[in-house]
């Protein structure tokens, strides 16, 4: 039914269309509007607030324009692979053949929590899956977030960076 649609979490993942970044679709340009930035930040903070048992040291992340600019620059490269950050910050990548909604990337990363055990800080995913995207979203020490989005030739690319890593 949706054979032409693909979602990538650094690899192929899902084939169901999701709500779109409406402003990007209407504008036809790249990057995130102020409203979309706020939605990405709010969704990250929501997912962080749902960590159970609640993380005593969990802070609400704030939007960081410097991280957003570097995320946008990497998204603009259309290189679906992690950048060489030198450990300066954490990084999550997401790709889709259709315009992803502001929540789609964060929700896809959050799906990895099913393989993560908080009490032992262990990850037991099936082959080809990981917990790294999820643990980056809920990393208690991270206080800053910046994301970028680019429409590449035939797909959309979302990059989020986190500090401290």
From TrEMBL:
GO terms for cellular component: extracellular region. The gene is LOC106171860. This is Pathogenesis-related protein 1A1-like. It comes from Lingula anatina. SMART domains: SCP (SM00198). Residues 35-165 form the SCP domain. PANTHER family: CYSTEINE-RICH SECRETORY PROTEIN-RELATED (PTHR10334).
